[in-house]
UniProtKB/TrEMBL annotation:
The keyword Acyltransferase does not apply. Residues 109-384 form the Fe/B12 periplasmic-binding domain. Keywords: Signal. One of its GO terms (biological process) is cellular response to iron ion. The lineage of its organism: Bacteria, Pseudomonadati, Bacteroidota, Cytophagia, Cytophagales. InterPro entries: ABC_Transporter_SBP, ABC_transptr_periplasmic_BD. It comes from Dyadobacter flavalbus. It holds the Pfam family Peripla_BP_2. Residues 1-25 form the signal peptide. This is ABC transporter substrate-binding protein.
């Protein structure tokens, strides 16, 4: 018997068995890993979803472990649309979205470019995720001001732009900016290359108060706070519609004028604008309501003067919290001819302006349209809301 040959065969068989066990074990391990991933993805993360009812500038779609958010610009063109993949942290990126901007959720740290974005976070009680602001001066939220004092929030603006170096050093989970989605600047490209996703907030394209307020749902999707936003938005929406229905029943609508003449023109809200919708829902008779544009109307003083002469109430007059009737008259003596000036029915939205110069009308006012509307109804039809005290608006003395 050839013992050497038998020994060689046994060694070959042992080696082959070892290879098979190793391969099988690896394949089994890979298979189990894949099963874990697939089970994670199969899990329904989103028992609570949010629906977009009023806003035209964004959509949110829900899938097993990710969301797709589309932000639209004013042009309606594909080039002016941004798509974002909101992916649950620790799960696999789905196929077919390799070119889509990825944002891992829930977002843990966020830098923002506008105080309006602060208002969105405040609505959700999520100021704690804020780590960067374009300008630390212009903020109204007392909670955020405390965070600034504690050096928890950095200034990310510089020379009317962005401090890229500071942002890259901070490396927030997300930068929320303003403008149109199609306007990709070098700043944003640099940040995205550094692994900082940039999301464009285009709430300014909306032409109704509830539509602008609804942008809080984008932030809720980033933070996985759909349950909270659904509850709070529904309460606000219900109250807005309730008080708007009161004003809709009035027969006598006061005539109004809005704004002030500047050096170049008197800019009035177009009849299809956000502010004009406030006027309409508050029961006002607005002369330019039928000019259906959401843009401002740049008119000269002579075109506005005949309407302003007889307007019952003058809204949105003044630029500063310290404005007075005397100060307004000093700007142009012709203001003294206005009926509203003579009766003293002049109101500005500068009631909540802090010592930093930040106006809360543009911060929390955006997500509290029911309170803004209550102010306007109190001014136009005080009998409808006898117990309401003005919050954002005040009468000039």
């Amino acid at each position: 018997m050839n013992y050497s040959r038998i020994r060689l065969l046994l060694l070959k068989n042992a080696f082959l068995s070892l290879v098979l066990i190793t391969v099988y074990g690896c394949n089994s391990s890979d298979s189990q890993s894949e099963q874990k991933i697939s089970k994670a993805e199969a899990k329904n993360y989103y028992n609570e979803k949010t629906e977009v009812k009023y806003a035209k500038g964004f959509t949110i779609d829900y899938f097993s472990h990710y969301k797709i958010v589309n932000i639209f610009g004013t042009s309606g063109q594909a080039a002016d649309t941004a798509k974002y993949l909101l992916l649950e942290r620790g799960t696999a990126r789905p196929e077919g979205f390799s070119e889509v901007q990825l944002i891992e959720i829930p977002v843990r740290s966020m830098a923002v470019m506008s105080s309006m974005h602060v208002g969105l976070l405040g609505f959700l009680g999520s100021e704690n995720v804020l780590t960067g602001l374009a300008n630390l001066q212009y903020v109204y939220s007392s909670e955020v001001i405390k965070m600034i004092g504690a050096r928890k929030i950095a200034e990310i603006g510089r020379d009317q732009g962005l401090n890229d170096e500071k942002l890259i050093e901070m490396h927030p989970d997300l930068l929320m900016t303003m403008g149109s989605p199609g306007a990709k600047t070098q700043h944003y490209q640099t940040l995205e290359q550094a692994g900082i996703p940039v999301l464009t907030n285009s709430e300014w394209i909306e032409n109704t108060p509830l539509a602008r307020a609804e942008w809080v749902k984008v932030v809720a999707a980033l933070l996985n706070k759909e349950e909270m936003v659904n509850k709070k938005f529904a309460e606000m929406e219900k109250e807005y519609n309730r008080i708007a229905s009161l004003a809709a029943k009035v027969k006598d609508k006061p005539t109004i004028i809005s704004g002030l003449n500047t050096k170049d023109a008197w800019f009035l809200p177009g009849g299809g604008s956000y502010m004009a919708r406030f006027f309409n829902d508050a029961g006002a008779d607005y002369h330019w309501n039928d000019v259906k544009t959401d843009a401002s109307l740049p008119l000269n003083f002579e075109a506005v003067y005949p309407v302003a002469l007889d307007a019952d109430i003058w809204l949105n007059v003044g630029f500063d919290k310290n404005d007075t009737k005397k100060g307004i008259l000093a700007m142009d003596s012709r203001y003294g001819d206005f009926k509203a000036f003579k009766t003293g029915k002049m109101y500005s939205y500068n009631n909540r302006v802090n010592e930093r110069g930040s106006n809360d009308f543009f911060e929390s006012g955006t997500v509290n349209p029911h309170i803004v509307l209550s102010d306007l109804i109190k001014i136009l039809h005080p009998e409808l809301l006898p117990d309401h005290q003005l919050v954002y608006y005040k009468q000039l003395r």
